[in-house]
Amino acid sequence: MRRREFIIFLSGAAATWPLIGHAQPGERMRRVGILMPYPPSDKEMQNRVQAFKEELRNRGWTTGVNVQFDERWTTDNMDLIRAAATNLVELKPDVVFAIGGRVIPILMQLTSSIPIIVPGGTNPVERGWVKSLARPGGNVTGFAQAELSIIGNMLQTLKEIAPNISHVAMIYNPDNPAAAFFGRSFEDAARSLAIEPVIAHIHSLTDIERAIETVAARPNGGVFSPSTSRSVRI
């Protein structure tokens, strides 16, 4: 996503908070917790967080003046994520800005009162984050990047591009909590299109190469990746 698009995207999320608005004289300092399951060296994610802060500043919220940011960059280490989430909740922020399918459930277990803003999640209803998209309920809100019907649409597009395709492997990391939802939708959609679904679990580049080689061993195969929204004929 381009930086400008992300600023616009997050400005919409920011507008939903009670936090947003221009500071008034004597108003207390607000706290915003930020939990990113990425290394602090990740330039793309740093740019996104910076865009988020810039948009808040445009709306009258300035670091050190009327808002304080408590950032935690944990990498994908679950022990660090749990520790950081616990620490942020103990600081009693006005809101926590977080992403990650394994991050949000941890925050939900720790607090039912602090608002949790998700700038982009997948299947929030099916995963139990919200009751419905129209009326989320609870303390989680934000935006959903995709919903399950897109799996069938993407496979349909692949079928239109390659009408003779007979089998397609969906590659994904099974450690991703959304994987099970994607897997079921993929298998249902594939069978409705007379395509043999093949589930390929990956944890490394080597696993990806192996999955592609396996599919390519037979003619008219394809590879499907829901995480990147790309499909290819091989």
Q: Give the SSE string.
A: HEHEHEHEEHEHEHEE
What structural category do the secondary elements indicate?
Answer: alpha/beta
Q: Tell me the radius of gyration.
A: 20 Å
Helicity range: 25-40%
Uncertain ranges: 1-23, 228-234
Spatial separation of the terminal alpha carbons: 27 Å
Give the spatial strand order of the biggest sheet: 2-1-3-4-5
**Number of discrete helical segments:** 7
Overall mean pLDDT:
82
Shape: elongated
**Count of β-strands:** 9
- Tell me the fraction of residues in β-strands, as a range: 15-25%
Q: Could you describe the largest sheet, including whether it forms a barrel?
A: 5 strands, parallel
Would you mind describing this structure in some detail?
With 234 residues, the chain is of the alpha/beta class. It has seven helices and nine strands; from the N terminus they run αβαβαβαββαβαβαββ. The strands form two sheets. A five-stranded parallel β-sheet has the order 2-1-3-4-5, with helices on both faces. Helix 4 links the parallel strand 3 and strand 4 (116-122). Helix 1 packs across helix 2. The chain is elongated. It starts with a helix and ends with a strand. Mean pLDDT is 82; it is low at 1-23 and 228-234.
